Amino acid sequence: MRNPHIMKSALLLSSLFTPFARAQTGDLYTDSKTNITFWRETIDSAQTKGGMQWGYALPGTASGTNDEYIGLIVGSLQSGHKGWSGISHGGGMPNSLLLMAWVDGENIKTEFRYASGYVAPDIYTGNATLTQISHSINDTHFSLVYRCRWCWAWNQNGATSQQLPTGDSQVIGWAQNLDVPSNPIREHNNGQAQFGAPVASARNAAYTEWVSKYGGGVTTPTSTPTSTPTSTPTSTPAGPTTCVGTPAPTQTFDYIVVGAGAGGIPVADKLSESGKSVLLIEKGPPSLGRWNGTMKPKWLEGTNLTRFDVPGLCNQIWVDSAGVACTDIDQMAGCVLGGGTAVNAALWWKPVPLDWDYNFPAGWKSADMAAAESRVFSRIPWTDHPSMDGKLYKQEGFDVIASALAADGWKSVTANDVPEQKNRVYSHTPFMYSHGQRGGPLATYLVSAYGRKNFQLWMNTAVRRVIRTKGHITGVELDGGNGGYCGVVNVTANTGRVILSAGTFGSTKLLYRSGIGPKEELQVVSNSVQDGLSMINSSDWIDLPVGRNLNDHVNTDLVIRHPNVSFYDFYGAWSDPIKSDEDTYLSNRTGILAQSAPNIGPMFWEIINGTDGIARSLQWQARVEPSPPATDNTSMTMSQYLGRGSTSRGTLSINGALSMYVSKVPYLHTQEDIDAVVKGIENLQKAIAKVPGIIWEVPAPNVTARDFVNGVPVTAAKRRSNHWIGTAKIGTDSALTGGTSVVDTNTKVYGTDNLFVVDASIFPGHIVTNPSAYIVTIGEQAASKILALGTTGNGQTGGTTMAGAYKQCSGRGYKGPTTCIDGYTCKVWNSHYSLCLPN
Ligand SMILES: Cc1cc2nc3c(=O)[nH]c(=O)nc-3n(C[C@H](O)[C@H](O)[C@H](O)COP(=O)(O)OP(=O)(O)OC[C@H]3O[C@@H](n4cnc5c(N)ncnc54)[C@H](O)[C@@H]3O)c2cc1C
Ligand code: HEM
Predict the structure, then answer these.
(1) Which positions are annotated as active-site residues?
(2) Of 264, 375, 456, 783, which sees the most CB atoms within 10 A?
């Protein structure tokens, strides 16, 4: 699901504020004490209790002083001067220089921090420098004017990034907390978001004068350290850290599956069903109660339930992600047993046949997938009435929107009864909940696998990379974790196989660290402190477009309100559930807490025909919850997902600290993608107009759909749906021979004998719906294909695993070994023939 914009405290207090108060506005403001003029953004108190301001002044011209500014923070204070206010110099929270400020007695304290994911940020170890110019404190706010040097380019132990003020605008993030920072630091609980800052408005020729007066000396372009992150001095670790954990048992396995998520669990189960020995390695801790998970609120103590089991707590990941979210990616993903299937909202869709037919290669068309699909749905059925009494709770939101769609001629369907019908239809939401609790692969495939003697599950153990000689994988190297294993675990000699199911971010990272991917990414790994010295030699790198073709549903949030609708506080249910709801849930799994937060539905779909001849799918997912700038308790957010047919693609990269980041967002690069999003909104506006009581909040009634869409920043924080796919594309056109695919139709990585990828990363393009049921189906299908390869020669003819000198090693229709003997490398001769040539 799309990330909700949780403004818990603001929401609870929303009745105290005008629902249509200004959201964010920029103006020029001159500070009376210093006479410094700032371009200033004001975030009003409907967004964050007490409001917040941030302003900045930049040197008169873009030059060598790109890396500094004079800033203004006006943060809100609660009684006793409590509260911290923070900004992100890169806009998003992860991979960015964060600055926090709070009151300490008569003074203001500041701290630079840095986080590689949506987890507690560490103290920043780079050289950003803050000089305080002036401050004031009263009962409700503090104000700080500061000079920030080396703040637009940052380097945290080799993870570099920057947002220099050299373009038209910059994106800045803000966050506030109602209390002073704790140790360890806790997530902001008084709102967070981003805004755009117009660079030209912040520039001022008087900057040098201000700096000489207040900023600790004149700064001239020549004496300022340059702004490129590579040239800024930083404290990078002296050497690689060693694995912390227990030595791995010396056992070999026919299959090692890396990552126990939507793809990994079913593939591991099906492979173990064949009698082969299978090891499933998961880097995260247990999640559900049935797997001895322990993370839970007080009211679940004494039960076998955790936060992951209870549908009504599924959004807790957006409130408290520490220990759950992956720490090495700049997006949200679950790094716990079950991966996304442990933390998601559990929407569970029968695949749309055209999704397979349009996107996937031969062997993966809808007719090919039918058997796998029916196996998946017989093991994991769907329900659109998750409460055990068969009732649906608080359906006012569904009713309001459904009445508009019906009035406009949209058809009501039961989506999973007619998966192919996805144009101008609406439906209740199907989930993979079972007996009022989270079901899915964790409650089915993993249970059957676990019961087999030939299956092992290692949790809290991260895999560092695969170990390979040329294209032949002999095992995996472990990275330990919270009590996990270190060392190497091998696959059965000659016939063993490794399957990467670590998700779009995790599998891409493992491929990079294993020397498989574009040279520029592998070079980053090779230059890293952690892997540089031990990475596979560059002569053995396999050049495939891993990390390219990144896609995600393009999200656009609209908001309406209607007096019939009312917000149920699923977030409050974490610490203080309504007693009767707690009781009915605990005693018989009935009531609203058996439904996903925050009241998801209706779901509705439309197809938009593009001028490029492509029919694009839109899925709308409504929920009873406002999104900024709306705060009213009667609001509903309708998230539009642009899916099948989208033609924009992005890139997933790795940085020097070996964290993954979206280096190019996959959103709205083509006019036809933009047009589809706009047209979908216009069509919905027409439908909503049929019910007079519905009031538009976003876009505001006087804003056109196109202006609105053009005004929403195309950043991951604003546009993501958390349905990342595509970075190890499946296809018959090997990228080694001029094509675009990373894995073949058996999911085997081109150029390797026995390395497979089975997870969201193999999708060539996006689909209509939320993807987890498709990914489980891919797990089923891939297992059949991999098993059908047999064991000799890993499916290659002749039983040999390496091609000899000057022998064919790849090409159209070629099925033989793709790895060359020592001293030779597989090189493209022409578009259908590659051969082993001396290195
Ligand atoms: C908040 C949220 C809500 C969502 N809601 C829905 C929804 O309602 N319905 C839906 O269909 N989809 C939803 N999705 C998307 C869906 O859950 C994912 O697309 C899906 O889980 C991806 O499957 P996967 O197998 O590719 O990866 P994942 O399920 O992410 O599994 C990857 C696993 O690999 C592990 N791993 C990673 N690296 C390593 C390593 N080096 N060593 C060992 N283990 C490793 C991870 O810890 C993880 O367990 C949601 C996603 C999020 C984040
Ligand atoms: C334990 C500490 C923290 C955790 C677990 C955490 C987690 C999160 C999460 C989950 C989001 C996404 C919210 C959403 O989209 O609904 C987010 C956003 C954000 N956080 Fe944090 N956060 C923490 C601390 C901080 C700190 C100290 C700052 C300092 C400035 C900060 C700045 C931001 C900003 C600017 C955003 C909005 C931009 C974005 O979504 O990337 N966070 N945080």
Answers:
(1) 723
(2) 264
Q: Ligand 2: residues within 6 Å at CB?
A: 3-6, 86-88, 92-93, 98, 100, 113, 118-121, 173-175, 185-188, 192-194, 318, 321-322, 717
Q: State the pairing for strand pair 497-500/255-258.
A: parallel
Give the count of beta carbons closer than 10 Å to the beta carbon of residue 401. 26
Q: Which two tokens stand for residue 194?
A: 């981003």
Q: Where are the alpha helices (DSSP H) in 721-821?
A: 772-788
CA of 191 to the centre of ligand 2 (A): 9
Ligand at shortest distance from the CA of 511 = 1
Q: Can you say whether residue 591 is alpha, beta or left, with left for phi > 0 and alpha for psi between -120 and 50 degrees?
A: left
Q: Are the CB atoms for 355 and 606 separated by under 8 Å?
A: no
**CA 822 centroid distance within chain:** 40
**How far is ligand 2, taken at its centre, from the CA of residue 445, in Å?**
34
pLDDT tens digit string along 542-586? Answer: 999 999 999 999 999 999 999 999 999 999 999 999 999 999 999
CA distance 744 to 762: 10
Atom of ligand 2 nearest to the CA of 4: 16
β-strand pairing of 660-664 with 485-491: unpaired
Hey, what domains does the chain have and what are their CATH numbers? Answer: 31-231 (2.60.40.1210), 255-331+334-343+447-549+727-789 (3.50.50.60), 389-440+556-648+660-713 (3.30.410.10), 808-838 (no CATH)
| Closest approach atom of ligand 1 to CA 348 | 11
Amino acid at 117: G
Write out the two tokens for 562.
């209607």
Scan for tokens 């920030």, then name that residue: 148
Question: Would you say 191 and 176 are in contact if contact means Cβ atoms under 8 Å apart?
Answer: yes
Round to whole Å and give the CA distance between 686 and 601: 19
Q: Identify the residue whose tokens are 């589809």.
A: 676
The ranges of the chain with pLDDT < 50 are 6-24, 218-234, 793-800
pLDDT tens digit sequence for 222-238: 333 333 333 343 455 66
129's CB contacts (< 8 A; 6+ apart) are 148, 149, 150
Ligand 1 centroid distance, CA of 759 (Å): 9
Q: At what angle do helices 671-688 and 396-407 cross, to 10 degrees?
A: 100
